[in-house]
Amino acid sequence: MVSRVRVWLNRTYAENVFFMDQLRRNPSDRAVEIHATHGDPDSPVLAAADTADLEPEGLSPAAYVEYALDQCTRRAIDVFVPRLHQEAIVGHRAEFRAAGTALLAPPTEAMAVFHDKATAYQAAQSIGVPVPPWWRVTNEDELLAAVEELEAGGHRACFKPAAGAGGVGFRVITRTPFSLAHLSGFPSAYVPLDLVVQAVREAEEPVDWLVMPRLEEPEVSVDCLTGPDNRIRMAVGRTKNGRRRGFTLHEQWLAPARRLAEGFGLHHLSNIQFRMYGDEPVLLDVNTRPAGGLHQLSLCGINAPWAAVQLALGEDPGEVVPPFLGTDYAVVSGPRPVRPVTLPQQRTEEPEQAPVLPAAAPVDTVGVTAAEALPL
Length: 376
Fold this sequence. Notes:
Blueprint: E1 5-10, H1 17-24, E2 32-38, H2 44-48, E3 51-54, H3 61-75, E4 79-81, H4 86-90, H5 93-98, E5 102-103, H6 108-115, H7 117-126, E6 135-137, H8 140-152, E7 157-161, E8 171-174, E9 190-192, H9 193-202, E10 209-213, E11 216-226, E12 232-241, E13 244-248, H10 251-263, E14 268-277, E15 280-287, H11 304-312, E16 329-338, E17 364-373
Parallel strand pairs: 1-2, 1-4, 2-3, 4-5, 8-9
Antiparallel strand pairs: 6-10, 7-8, 7-10, 11-12, 11-14, 12-13, 14-15, 16-17
Helix pairs in contact: 1-11
């Protein structure tokens, strides 16, 4: 009899409820039990899991590693998919292996390359992957010099933190003075240059930003699955052009993604993003973790989460190729269950120990992004 597989996701994105759904609907018909932990008791991943704990707050990376090792031992975790403190956890891979847990994450060397976007761009350039022009800025003078050089070349300047995940901190610089137009409608990513300069000038510490041209769509996110042998098993591009999403296997996107994943040992699941600089695809970002939209590959007949778990367990899934490319689609929001409220929403003192969430039936819902096909 084939034993169950026990998988843990820690403080992961709400969209990974679909990651969890796919694990349970795996094509091997293997029993999967999912453990989830989070700092937010209303995270839908806690309700979607078979067992769930609230995570203790305020742990240092080293203390969190101890917490994680205890979770893996007590919960008999076979595969751990770390997000929070990923780099610290991966640095103790041997200890997790001794506890019987495989880490679904790249080695520390690969993570270090792509933690900092400037280092990532330099590394990509060294192996021939095109990157956009960029300037690392820490003060007002460096910011102005970079913006003026970009604008002189006919580009619109933008900036983002040198280290960070997703689009957090991304802004587009405009010369339009601040007015009521900025206060109408929904909040915008566009910020007047004079306000940015003033904020940098008055900051108590230097900023650490990359300034670069605003790149054009389409944006293509290539989901990669790479083995410990540095051989890629899967590379499929997800395209985004406004509201419309789709899929691609075009080599102009896949070839540089393979070069990065195999060249730098991005083992297991990674997500490599590109945009257009003129008529050339250039690297936007490299994520050393599963993308929140990974589940969308199910529209191409692929169960990428299960293939990744198989690989982590030493069961090579072979080459994962979509049997077809799904139709174009849009991303919409839908309800997912959350667990009953077990803690006050605000508390004046920290509990001595993180409480374990009960296994009661969910009674409320929260919106989670899902993929639905567009009728064309």
